[in-house]
């Protein structure tokens, strides 16, 4: 029997991200994945600003090439790639597709999944994660102390048991772990099964200079969806589940390109268009993440892989605090409380938008639509790990509209620290952090940290950091001159001051004890 604190089942994007985030936090982690590398037909390609903020926090952002500021994802209806292009289609009706690029220090990335995954593997291993590729899960059981998982090395056939305090199931939409736990899912369900072909055609990349990356191909007797991975590889998706010979695939690729171009067929794919959200994301010592928790089709909002990476970042700090003995295991209940509503919101948004609404029979017609930046940077978390996120607040809003609302991501503002320009989000990655322009709050945080025997980072505005204008901190964080904001290790605002001056230390102790579920407090 081998022991670890966290066992991850599944080594694709979400499982690898979880291993990276946990190992960066010094949580002993084993990951098992039955495959030895990435799938030959990559799926995800677009990674959002928030995902890149997570990679930035763990020191990986510089290895992932980001898109140029102001770049937006554009889609047109077209006769073919080289033929006539028709009208452009919007993802969110009525919203400008351009993002001004002022809400995040990151711009997002366009990188194929099979190019990103090796970076995540290397980074996780470098930080101490134990990745066991070519190893499959045979069975598991829970007891009062954790999880016993029986695994087998696929080459040697050697089977052994791993005992883990907690297990993360990042084992895909068909998740055997979720099914064994009996966790039900709800949503629009199965809509149809589609096929695709991956091909290499560097000449086609010349058409990307016009700023469009996705094409709805419409010809008499032929309809398909064409998009690029930005590295000479393209994918053509059909609207049926018909198996095609290579000659037929080549003929359809030629039709989609519209003129004679040299190309090479690389791989075929088959995927289910469906919407299913797990009714809960945890069961005892086991947590669902990624497609195991929320199955959604590819979207221009990046609601698949990015949502799963967000799951992993949310869970990582909570596991760290529980495994270090600072927090009670009840802190882990907030994972499902916070992330399941996010998954459900993204389900509703996906099938309310024009891309997928017809496939769902317009069942979500009239659903309120939230803009791109609201969905990516302005979602609201509600749980016992947040104080002050009332039920009358919307589930998402533009990040500028929140102004430091507890339960939302701390706003990005360019600031100066020791003469260097950084982002405010760089302040909130490791520990709970109290930020204020009132020195008395800094002293109160130091007293609270000593009393609670935990570390609280403090930031004194005007001394430790300089904001661009004098009122920027109060305006963006929604606090008065003598106020303060407490930010969690995942960059979510947990609480902001509402109490009198003489009660600062006691008020902060009470807030932290609740938010972090401090053990024995």
Automatic annotation (TrEMBL):
Which part of the chain is the FAD-binding domain? 3-345
Keyword list (alphabetical) reads: FAD, Flavoprotein, Membrane, Transmembrane, Transmembrane helix
Q: Which cofactor does it need?
A: FAD
- Segment forming the signal sequence: none
Against InterPro entries, the record matches this protein to: FAD-bd, FAD/NAD-bd_sf, RIFMO-like
| Molecular functions (GO terms) | FAD binding; oxidoreductase activity, acting on paired donors, with incorporation or reduction of molecular oxygen, NAD(P)H as one donor, and incorporation of one atom of oxygen
Its recorded name reads: FAD-dependent oxidoreductase
Q: Which organism is it from?
A: Aliidongia dinghuensis
């Amino acid at each position: 029997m081998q022991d670890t604190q966290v066992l991850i089942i599944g080594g694709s994007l979400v499982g690898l991200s979880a291993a990276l985030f946990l190992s960066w936090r010094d949580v002993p982690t084993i990951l098992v994945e039955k495959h030895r590398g990435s799938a030959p037909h990559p799926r995800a390609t677009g990674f959002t600003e928030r995902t890149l903020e997570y990679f930035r926090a763990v020191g990986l952002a510089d290895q992932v090439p980001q898109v140029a500021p102001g770049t937006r994802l554009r889609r047109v209806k077209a006769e073919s790639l080289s033929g006539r292009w028709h009208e452009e289609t919007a993802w969110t009706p009525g919203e400008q597709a351009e993002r001004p690029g002022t809400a995040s220090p990151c711009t997002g990335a366009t990188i194929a999944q099979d190019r990103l995954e090796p970076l995540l593997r290397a980074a996780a291993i470098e930080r101490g994660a134990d990745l066991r590729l070519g190893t499959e899960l045979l069975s598991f059981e829970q007891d009062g102390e954790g999880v016993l998982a029986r695994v087998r090395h696929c080459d040697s056939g050697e089977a052994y048991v791993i005992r883990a305090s907690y297990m993360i199931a990042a084992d895909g939409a068909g998740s055997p772990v979720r099914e064994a736990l009996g966790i039900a899912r709800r949503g629009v369900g199965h809509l149809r099964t589609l096929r695709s072909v991956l091909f290499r055609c560097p000449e086609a990349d010349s058409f990307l200079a016009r700023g469009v990356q996705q094409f709805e191909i419409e010809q008499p007797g032929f309809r398909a969806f064409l998009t690029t991975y930005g590295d000479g590889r393209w994918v053509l998706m059909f609207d049926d589940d018909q198996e095609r010979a290579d000659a037929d695939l080549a003929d359809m690729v030629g039709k989609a390109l519209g003129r004679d171009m040299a190309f090479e067929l690389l791989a075929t794919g088959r995927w289910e268009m469906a919407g299913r959200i797990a009714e809960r994301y945890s069961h005892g010592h086991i947590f669902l993440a990624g497609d195991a928790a929320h199955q959604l089709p590819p979207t221009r909002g990046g609601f698949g892989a990015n949502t799963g990476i967000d799951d992993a970042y949310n869970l990582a700090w909570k596991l760290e605090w529980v495994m270090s003995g600072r927090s009670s295991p009840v802190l882990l209940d907030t994972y499902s409380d916070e992330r399941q509503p996010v998954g459900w919101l993204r389900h509703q948004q996906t099938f309310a938008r024009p891309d997928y609404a017809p496939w769902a029979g317009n069942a979500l017609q009239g659903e309120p639509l939230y803009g791109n930046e609201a969905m990516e940077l302005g979602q609201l978390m509600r749980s016992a790990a947040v104080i002050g996120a009332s039920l009358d607040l919307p589930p998402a809003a533009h990040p500028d509209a929140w102004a430091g609302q507890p339960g939302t991501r701390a706003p990005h503002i360019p600031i100066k620290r020791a003469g260097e320009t950084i982002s405010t989000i760089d302040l909130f990655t490791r520990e709970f952090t109290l930020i204020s322009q009132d020195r008395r709050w800094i002293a109160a945080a130091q007293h609270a940290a000593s009393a609670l025997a935990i570390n609280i980072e403090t930031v004194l505005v005007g001394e430790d950091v300089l904001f661009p204008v004098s009122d920027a901190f109060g305006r963006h964080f929604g606090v008065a001159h003598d106020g303060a904001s407490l930010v969690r290790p995942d960059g979510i605002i947990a609480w902001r001051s509402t109490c009198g001056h003489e009660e600062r230390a006691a008020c902060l102790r009470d807030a932290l004890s609740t938010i972090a579920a401090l053990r024995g407090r």
